Give the backbone structure.
Amino acid sequence: MAASLRTTIDEARASALPSLTSMPRGSVVLALARIEARQMLRHPAFLFTVAFGLLLIRGAVGMGVGDDPMRNLIWLIGGLAIGSLIGGVITANVAALRARRDHVLELFGSLPSPPEARTAGALAGLVLGLGSASLVIGAIAWIALERIDDTAAEADLFLAVQYVLSVLALGAIGVAVARWIPTVLGGPLVVIAHVFTGVIWIVPWIAPTDSGIGVAWHLIYLLAVIAAFSAAAFLRDRRTIARWIVTASMFALAVVAAVQQTPPGGY
Amino acid sequence: MSAPTVEIHDVRKRFGRTTALQGVTFDVAAGITGLLGPNGAGKTTLLRMMATVLAPDDGRLRLLSWDPQAADERLAIRRRLGYMPQEPGFHRSFTAFEFVDYVAILKEMTERRARHDEVRRVLGLVGLEGVSGRKIKALSGGMRRRVALAQSLLGDPDLLVLDEPTAGLDPEQRLRFRELVSDRTADRTVILSTHQTEDVAALCQRVIVMLDGQVLFEGTPRELTQVADRRVWLADDRAAGARLSWRTADGAHRNIGEAPSDADLVAPTLEDGYLLLVGDRAFAEEAA
């Protein structure tokens, strides 16, 4: 406890001299993104939640899903998708939390790259790692659905796009939460609160086209959530008026899009 | 002394009610300068200022001719600075190579092949090439400090600020550290805070002793050693005028303090000079 308090005080002292006002170099962000992407994809929290998602789906549908290998593949991909959505929040959160948790802020404060470089690196790593992985999962799911005779009509490219954007949106939430609530419990709490407060049912992350959802507005909603939480993460690094305006505008856009996408009679 | 690369003038710093630095003034030129002092003397606070992570409340600081208070000049300093904090943190889930590589990226080394070569070079310098693929959480405390030292050497910085770099190193590694630091070219500046007076005696061209946030001594290691001239002697027992006394391996007592006229004087070490200097001040404060 005392050691932890001391470290907190030390870090507060270490950040007394503000970092530079310049934005990070693109090449620095890209190099960090490669490392972050690798770290996220092989992080135990991500691997565990993906495995858990698979097991959950397997348990939910039972063992007798039939002998159709293509249908089994779809269930498998469903499990991967759920696991990667949850795992995405947690690993992105852990990645953005790493510098504070590992007490390297004093060292990083002496380096030429501003803290925005690490935030941008985590967000870009999210796109490069989890975004690419979800793109592959989404593409396989779409192709698989199309190839089964009785599900070909349900093959919905919109679903795959939503899934990829949802992984990125949840990851961006994980990064923003880590920057504002620097505790390792932040990621899991977001997941739990999201489900148990009912938010998940008000604005679904993924909904099929035939649910009556406003397709364009839903995509705008997902993009606005990604932008809003990314901006909120950068706002923690430096609170400028421009960043406040961008963050507030993106949250406002997300709310408008959430309202507009809802079918007239609800879901 | 050649042109100063670090200029510190009347620097002051307070943390709440605690005064960490009270008007510190000195210049440092290229070469190795040792910073000695007991715990709480203000060494780490001063080093954090030299590492541009902490601002003084008052006074003037110039590093490599730049002012760290000005944002653009601070960037110029950080591009030429290597810093090893007293309690360096690590990304425990990274390997030694990955961590140093991560720091190298934040030092704006973005060309991958050249960066990886540089990471391998600095890990080799500290003797960690064999364990560079091992996760940091699996390394010993001494190895972790060498990882911290390795990252500070990235890009061969003009100003190297090292806060207790040899703490936790075994004797062989300490000697290797001395070899590594002394091999640096004469136009580089190394500031070395330590409790190991042997390291200062072996390495440093200049030494600064701090106590209670002030500079107590500034000079060469030889001059610091001379503080104990004719004040160290051997006797069969602890002498009355001795500030410090301990029994050596051959049974005699090594006394430090005001030697009697018939004392069996011995050559002092830098540690003797340091102990007397710090002890004299503490003694004077006690008397007051």
